UniProtKB/TrEMBL annotation:
This is LPS-assembly lipoprotein. Coiled coil: none annotated. One of its GO terms (cellular component) is outer membrane. It comes from Methylopila jiangsuensis. One of its GO terms (biological process) is Gram-negative-bacterium-type cell outer membrane assembly.
């Protein structure tokens, strides 16, 4: 065996490995499809397609409370861009449970340093005008905020934390609905 044969073998192995990796990547690329895209459309994923149409056809019932209103508004924006509902096909019923805690307390003053806001949301997707449940789920979000001795600052910080938690949950619900509609639900 000459020294040139010893140099060719590692190069050949690297070339074979690269070829296998490229072939495997191309084979797996066919397994993915865009969530919003209609593969038959010329735009190929430009925001149209059956998933986007189904999301835009979801009627979100009013939810009690300030946090419920924020959650509903976020969902309306995420599902249909804030546009008006036209021809609803689905109804989304949502229940919100809110809880607050003070996990860290200053040992010298006995005052809380941080607080957390926890939101638990139960939701059901139903065909519009029917009682059958198509999709049922539960989402949870916990957000913390700093607590000070200023009352107004604490109220604003709590509202901001509630809004952030509502936004997180709205994004989770949208993702679940996307997955449901993308799989033919």
């Amino acid at each position: 065996m000459s020294s040139s044969d010893a140099q060719i073998r590692p190069a050949r192995r690297a070339l074979v490995r690269f070829g296998l990796a490229a072939g495997l990547s191309l084979a797996l690329a066919g397994c993915f499809r865009p969530a919003y895209g209609d593969l038959g459309s010329p735009s190929h994923g430009g925001g149209g397609g059956p998933v986007a149409a189904n999301l835009a056809a979801v009627d979100i019932k009013p939810i009690e409370g300030r946090v419920g209103g924020k959650l509903r508004n976020e969902l309306i924006f995420l599902l249909r861009g804030g546009g008006a509902l036209q021809g609803p096909s689905y109804r989304l019923d949502i229940g919100v449970t809110q809880r607050g805690q003070s996990p860290i307390v200053d040992p010298y003053t006995g005052q809380p340093e941080t607080r957390t806001v926890s939101l638990l949301v139960n939701y059901e997707l139903k065909p519009y005008g029917k009682l059958d449940t198509i999709l049922k789920g539960q989402e949870f979000a916990t957000v913390s905020y700093s607590f000070t001795l200023q009352r107004f600052a604490n109220i604003r910080a709590q509202r901001d934390a509630e809004d952030r938690a509502a936004t997180q949950i709205a994004e989770k619900i949208r993702t679940r609905l996307q997955a449901h509609f993308a799989t033919g639900g």
